[in-house]
Design a protein that fits this description.
This protein has 45 residues and is mainly α. The chain is built from 2 helices and no strands. The chain is rod-shaped.
Length: 45
């Protein structure tokens, strides 16, 4: 039982850490991700 609780605690820590890393550097919203000269998301032509 003790090892199971430790495994659950480690999985929670890993998931929180991965969430912070992904939200801080890798994931961007559509306006930031497609803000290049080749693609304009919100520009209506």
């Amino acid at each position: 039982m003790k090892s199971f609780l430790m495994a659950v605690a480690v999985m929670i820590a890993i998931s929180v850490g991965a969430s912070v890393v992904l939200n801080s550097g890798f994931q961007k919203n559509a306006d930031q991700a497609f803000a290049t000269t080749g693609a304009r998301v919100d520009a209506a032509h």
